[in-house]
Specification:
single chain, alpha/beta, Rossmann fold, 2 domains, seven-stranded parallel sheet, six-stranded mixed sheet
Length: about 450
């Protein structure tokens, strides 16, 4: 299995731009390419899908043990000529979920992206630091971002000095990927996305050593134990939100539902008048605040969702989906926008990141997705807060900080934390079995 990881020296170094440029160039060569993102990021895989026109996946070693991670990677790479993994933050950052950890589990060679803006001699110091900080490592070489062409010989000389490989550079260019507080602006929001990706692909063809990248030596993927999933949800239909407002959805979560025997029916709370016929509901995260007034104007959809949940339909509502279930959303300019009204309270914006990173949640009682005392992994990343964030679970950060969160009942999980089904298949199984029971009970 030919594979490569594009990692970075830190957040904002340009690794997503380099990854997209490489993917575009490989697609332009008519290669079959699979793309993955380390960590819990939703947005970067949207860009990969735009380029490759196939689903892209996450590889998260916090959520998944070694065997599950390798299975997800193996399944997502089938029939591909090459798999490209993008790292998360800096190569060594993220503790248990770092890009370094994923490269070790998957035995994948790593190309580090180094942002050279405003540097010359310091480029060598950064290179030497990353190469020697934690050894052995799988760093095969470097791509130099924002490097003036006149410094290319210098970059090559540094690679020779440190016995590592030069894989190319990106000059300063105009095809920037815009950012907002949760990361990059989503691919669907960029009108000229295809032109930008094509232009980045041409830059990669001109300035990357693509033949050298695609011929990097890889061992066979390590052996692993496959997980068996019982199709306990055969005949069950799950309605899943997916549009511009609700776009934070793991492909792996959808695949787990399908392996459990469910039919997944996507719908748009923005555009559709009614909730589709279904036995269960997932309201995923996204940016409902950007479309709050349009969501509020779609009263038939809000009524359908309120009635479905109140009548006992099992529902998972994460972050943006949780916000959507509130009575009101308060905007920066003081508007009070009415929403579904399932959660009695308001959501409002904060000036800084409210919660960020991995957590482990302990359930206080039996509910839709857990039994009392169960611990499940999750992650949060939001600038919004609720007047009633819930108290059904206790969240624990790796550094020991704790807080209460989430609303859980026999038919609902609703809260800011995002769930990742491959981390604990029993969470998905409990949800699906509840959906199936409801489908059987309904006339």
């Amino acid at each position: 299995m030919q594979r490569i990881m594009i990692a970075g020296t830190g957040s904002g170094c340009g690794k997503t731009t380099v990854t997209c440029a490489l993917l575009s160039a490989l697609a332009g060569r008519n290669m079959k390419v699979s793309a993955f993102k380390c960590g819990p990021d939703y947005i970067d895989p949207m860009f990969y899908r735009e380029i490759l026109h196939t689903p892209s996946r996450n590889l998260d070693s916090f959520f998944c043990g070694r065997d599950m991670l390798l299975e997800l990677f193996d399944e997502g790479s089938k029939d591909s000529d090459i798999s490209v993994i993008e790292g998360v933050m800096g190569f060594y950052d993220g503790d248990e979920g770092s890009a370094c950890r994923v490269s070790e589990i998957t035995e994948t060679p790593v190309i580090l992206v180094l942002n050279c803006r405003g540097m010359k001699e310091s480029i060598g110091a950064v290179m030497q630091g990353f190469l020697q900080y934690n050894t052995p490592n799988r760093i095969a070489g470097f791509i130099f971002n924002n490097l003036p062409e006149r410094l290319v010989p210098f970059a090559k000389e540094l690679c020779d000095r440190f016995h590592t490989e030069y894989f190319g550079f990106l000059p300063v260019h105009k095809y920037k990927l815009e950012s907002r507080h949760l990361g990059l602006v989503t691919a669907a929001e960029i009108e000229d996305i295809e032109e930008k990706m094509d232009a980045l692909g041409k830059l990669a063809e001109e300035h990357f050593l693509i033949d050298k990248i695609t011929s990097l030596m890889c061992n066979p993927l390590p052996e692993y134990r496959k997980f068996k999933v019982s199709p306990c949800g055969e005949g069950t239909v799950i309605a899943v939100s997916r549009d511009r407002a609700f776009c934070f959805l793991y492909e792996e979560n959808v695949e787990v539902l399908k392996k459990l025997g469910c039919t997944v029916r996507f719908f748009s709370p923005l555009e559709d008048e009614h909730l589709p016929e279904a036995d269960g509901l997932i309201l995923c995260g996204g940016y409902p605040e950007l479309y709050a007034e349009k969501l509020a104007d779609n009263r038939t959809m809000l009524d359908d969702i309120r009635n479905a949940v109140s009548s006992g339909m099992p529902v998972i509502a994460e972050c943006g989906g949780f916000m959507y279930l509130h009575e009101y959303l308060l905007t920066d300019d003081g508007k009070k926008i009415p929403l579904a009204g399932v959660i009695k309270g308001e959501v409002f914006p904060e000036k800084r990141l409210k919660r960020f990173g991995y957590i482990t949640m302990k359930a206080h009682s039996d509910s839709l997705i857990t039994t009392a005392g169960t611990e499940i992994k999750a992650h949060e990343f939001h600038y919004w807060e609720s007047t009633d964030p819930g108290t059904s679970m206790t969240a624990v950060k790796p550094d020991g900080r704790t807080w209460d969160c989430c609303h859980t009942t026999a038919n609902m999980y609703a809260g800011f934390p995002h769930l990742y089904f491959p981390s604990d298949i029993t969470v998905a199984e409990r949800f699906v079995k509840a959906c199936k029971r409801r489908g059987i009970l309904l006339p």
